[in-house]
Specification:
binds adenosine-5'-diphosphate; 52% helix; 5-stranded parallel β-sheet; 24 strands
Length: 773
């Protein structure tokens, strides 16, 4: 590494020292020259004065004597002095006794001398004699050229300055060499040694320049060496750390790549298992779909022959048979019905599992539905069982929900209660509740042991081992009922004690559609012969006051004599005659279907009406209304008033390809008072319609040539029979079937196999009812 001369320390120091020494030398020289100048200036005056002093006496005598010759000699003598330029002696009268002069010396440096000392100086000496010092004899006048003195002075000054400068120069040269040798050279050596080393490889200490071990340079070298050692140590530590870091990074990279490979493998496995799951899911869905349609088809296939079987059995049972044959056929008929119910339960359960159960939300009369169901099941009640239907007077006239499913719930609970109760009461209570409605079925039957309370809601499980043997059943009813309640967002709960009885309570959130019925008011006092804890007493006590009637319960054995009732209700047919003898008030007999009295006796005991148990509100209200009206008119009952309404001879076109089903349906329709025409397929039906007037069409859906959907579409498209009701007959139990029928233009839907009551209900809704003349 080269450092230029002007930047070297030695040069800088030498030049600074020289500058200072030069300035100091110059100042000293100037002071010396100034002192010399002052001295020289004074010496001019001193010398001339001494010259005047020397010449005073001779000049005084010359003036005194007025000796011009001597005067001339004196002034010439004075002119010998190199400095004197003019000398004159003038007497006291102003006469010049002698005067000499010469021109000033010429020289190119005189300008400096003239500047310092002036060009010339004049001196005068008054001449007198010593004994008459106050008497002036004249004047000795000298004019001096200062250059004679100035020239000497200039030469001396120049010498002084030049020697001073030469001294400074010499001094600075000596200093430069010294500084270079002592400072610059060893420093430059250190710099070269430092700049030549490679800090990564060369760790040898710097050499100390000779002779500098103990001075600042030696200290600098040893401090630098110490720093170099530290730096070297730090570098090697860093290098080690770097090596370790690199190694760690390498390991990390390995780990990351191993993990990445593992993750990729897991991901691939996941994708694979997802694919398999997806496949399994779609297979399961397909299987569920296939099972549902298999079940639907199976139910169609099984129901169609069953329909024929049951229909034919019913027809045969209606004919003349001996007792044994009737019993055998009745058993076959009942078994067939059990088979149909079982089939329906299995189908419903499988619909739950396939997630295909769809619930309707339509307005329906829950009270009437409960009464109908109880009425239908009443035939299952044992002779010692009193089945009562207690509808709360505050129950909404219509609620919103799925009537079919609610009927199923009631029917399952009620048929169980009737099945497991040999004697006592079975009550169906329907009342509004905070959440909607509460359906309560209670019985005084065998009860359910505590440990079976959960089990009985599982499919195919029963409360005890001997149940099936003793009572029959498959164990499906409660499982289905609970699922139905839950599907309707409701709850099914059980309270039961073995040997005491059971109570099932279904809490269903069915919102009110129309407010509770307001019954036409009735007036009078009604007395009933019934036991305190009987269902009939509870029922009458609940309803009659809400219709405006007074009610009085009497013991069954009580006498009617003392009673001022407007109407008497009695549950014992055998007591009717006695009652009629005692009182002439209208009578109402409430008994089982089988216990109705013959019509001849009924006319004899008139006014009298008979109602079947369980009592339904509408039937009771109508009967009471009629009987009380007769009482008011005190007229004998008109025959027409008591006549039940009957169906007009309706013309029904039955479109059905299966000959057995044709026969069954035709027989049922005929029994319901209809005139029946039969067509084997849709095309034939349209042909018949074009020729004959028809009130209602029962249309099978699946038929050869033209199926029911197509035939209905054509009937609707033609526009010729806009008001003609077309009712679908189908064994396909899937929920979308109803929509398909509606889309084709059919008005209603009847699932096969159907019972006579189903058909009658359907005709009631689609054909007008009139009373026979
Ligand atoms: P099933 O009656 O066809 O056997 P369910 O699921 O309807 O099937 O009933 C399951 C079981 O619960 C019955 O077998 C019976 O043991 C018991 N059970 C149900 N209801 C009653 C009841 N009201 N009284 C006594 N036991 C009952």
């Amino acid at each position: 590494m080269d450092i230029s001369l002007t930047h070297r320390l030695s040069f800088k120091q030498a030049s600074l020292t020289v500058l200072v020494a030069f300035i100091l030398g110059t100042l000293l020289s100037l002071i010396q020259v100034s002192l010399d100048y002052a001295n020289e200036d004074a010496s001019i005056d001193r010398e001339i004065h001494s010259l005047l002093e020397i010449s005073h006496n001779p000049a005084a005598r010359i003036s005194y004597n007025i000796d011009a010759e001597l005067a001339q000699e004196l002034v010439l003598g004075l002119l010998q002095s190199p400095a004197v330029m003019r000398a004159e002696i003038i007497d006291n009268s102003g006469l010049v006794l002698a005067s000499v002069g010469r021109p000033p010396a010429r020289n190119r440096y005189r300008i400096f001398s003239d500047f310092l000392f002036g060009e010339r100086r004049q001196f005068e000496d008054q001449l007198f004699v010593s004994h008459a010092p106050n008497e002036s004899l004249g004047v000795l006048r000298l004019e001096v050229d200062t250059f004679a003195f100035g020239n000497d002075f200039l030469r001396r000054a120049l010498l002084t300055l030049v020697t001073g400068f030469a001294r400074s120069l010499l001094l600075s040269l000596i200093l430069l060499v010294l500084f270079y040798a002592m400072l610059t050279k060893p420093l430059v050596g250190i710099i070269h040694a430092l700049s030549d080393r490679d800090p990564r490889r060369d760790f040898a200490p710097l050499p100390c320049p000779a002779g500098h071990d103990l001075d600042e340079i030696g200290t600098l070298v040893s401090v630098t060496n110490q720093q170099l050692i530290n730096t070297h140590r730090e570098i090697s530590q860093r290098r080690e750390a770097e090596d370790r870091l690199t190694q760690y990074l390498g390991e990390l990279e390995n780990i990351v790549s191993a993990r990445t490979a593992e993750l990729k493998a897991t991901n691939a496995r996941l994708i694979q298992s997802n694919r398999e799951l997806e496949q399994a899911r779609s297979t399961a869905l397909e299987m569920a779909q296939a099972r549902a349609s298999f079940l639907a088809n199976m139910s169609h296939e099984i129901r169609t022959p069953l329909n024929g079987l049951l229909g034919m059995l019913e027809l045969t049972l209606d004919g003349s048979l001996d007792a044994e044959q009737r019993q055998q056929l009745a058993i076959a008929h009942d078994s067939g019905k059990v088979l149909v119910d079982l089939l329906n339960d299995i189908l419903d359960l499988s619909k739950f599992e396939a997630g295909q159960l769809e619930l309707e939300s339509i307005p329906f009369d829950l009270g009437a539905l409960a009464e109908d169901t109880a009425n239908l099941l009443s035939q299952n009640a044992g002779p010692k069982v009193e089945l009562t239907c207690l509808i709360d007077p505050n129950l909404p006239a219509q609620v919103l929900g799925d009537p079919t499913r609610v009927r199923q719930v009631i029917s399952n609970l009620l048929s169980n209660a009737l099945k497991f109760t040999r004697a006592g009461r079975v009550d169906l209570r329907v009342a509004p509740s905070a959440k909607g409605v509460r359906i309560l079925v209670s019985d005084t039957g065998i009860g359910i042991p505590e440990d079976a309370h959960q089990r009985i809601f599982q499919p195919f499980l029963q409360a005890g081992a001997g149940i099936t043997r003793q009572f029959g059943g498959t164990g499906l009813g409660l499982a289905l009922t609970r699922r139905l309640c839950e599907a309707m967002q409701g709850q099914l709960q059980l309270e039961s004690r073995e040997g005491v009885g059971s109570q099932f309570s279904a809490e269903l959130p069915l919102p009110q559609h129309t407010p509770p019925l307001s019954w036409p008011p009735l007036h009078g006092l009604v007395a009933a012969f019934c036991a305190t804890g009987s269902g009939l007493a509870e029922q009458l006590q609940s309803w009659l006051p809400s219709w405006g009637l007074q009610f009085q319960r009497l013991d069954e054995s009580a006498s009617a004599d003392a009673i001022e009732a407007d109407l008497l209700i009695c549950a014992n047919p055998e007591r009717l005659r006695a009652l009629r003898r005692e009182r002439q008030v209208p009578l109402l007999l409430v008994s089982a279907y089988g216990a109705f009295i013959p019509s001849a006796l009924a006319s004899e005991l008139a006014p009298l009406e008979q109602l079947a148990r369980p009592l339904a509100r509408h039937a009771l209200h109508r009967a009471l209304q009629r009987l009380l009206r007769q009482l008011a008119a005190t007229a004998e009952p008109s025959h027409a008033e008591l006549q039940q309404p009957t169906r007009q001879q309706a013309r029904v076109l039955l479109v059905e390809d299966n000959p057995v089903n044709q026969m069954v349906a035709k027989a049922m329709l005929s029994k319901l008072g209809c005139e029946v025409a039969v067509a084997a397929h849709g095309g034939e039906a349209i042909g018949y319609l074009e020729q004959h007037p028809v009130d209602l069409v029962l249309m099978d859906c699946n038929m050869p040539v033209m199926d029911g959907y197509e035939a209905t579409r054509r009937i609707r498209q033609s526009g010729r029979w806009p008001d003609l009701p077309v009712i679908a007959l189908t064994a396909n139990a899937l929920p979308d079937e109803r929509e398909r029928c509606q889309a084709a233009g059919m008005n209603d839907y009847l699932a096969k196999p159907f019972r006579r009551e189903d058909l009658a209900n359907l005709l009631d809704s689609w054909l007008p009812l009139t009373s026979e003349p």
